[in-house]
Write a structure and sequence with these properties.
The chain is α+β, with helices and mostly antiparallel strands. Helices cover 18% and strands 30% of the residues. A hairpin with a 6-residue loop joins strand 3 and strand 4. It starts with a helix and ends in a 12-residue tail after the last strand. The relative contact order is 0.16.
Length: 148
């Protein structure tokens, strides 16, 4: 009976040690960032960070998406939704912002860190409209280097 109890205690201790070790190794894996901090220059926001709640090009309101919620961050493709100002057909912005859909993919090394190098967006043409197809953020083929 004592040997059996010792065996059970030993197995529990071993299981705990292996589980703790696996969690430590998993926690050590770097979470991907959103492109490069240098993508937008000094006035940008969110780029070069993990799971940003706001991204901003540093220019006009059409370059800002905030209140972003991400799904599947760390997978090969992750998706987010946030709020975005869009242009009216004849200039200016709609008073009401729209829900924008974000997709990040193409994991690679970027400024020495693992990062998503491609950012696409899908949004309606007007508030209340249906989202149109995916297109590259700022027309950039990569967000791992400045567009200039």
């Amino acid at each position: 009976m004592l040997q059996r109890l010792s065996l059970i205690v030993g197995l529990v201790a071993l299981t705990f040690a292996v589980g703790t070790s696996a969690r430590t190794e998993a926690q050590a894996v770097e979470q991907p960032r959103l492109g490069a901090a240098s993508f937008t220059g000094p006035y940008g926001e969110g780029f070069g960070t993990v799971r940003p709640h706001t991204i901003y090009n540093g220019g006009d309101p059409s370059g800002l998406i905030d209140h972003i919620r991400w799904r599947r961050w760390g997978d090969s493709v992750a998706y987010g939704t946030g709020m975005h100002a869009i242009f009216k057909p004849h200039g200016g912005y709609y008073k009401r912002r729209v829900r924008a859909f974000l997709r990040v993919r193409r994991l690679e090394q970027c400024e020495g860190h693992l990062a998503y190098s491609q950012l696409s967006i899908k949004e309606p043409r007007r508030p209340g409209g249906k989202p149109r197809g995916w297109y590259a953020w700022s027309g950039a083929s990569t967000i791992c280097e400045p567009p200039y």
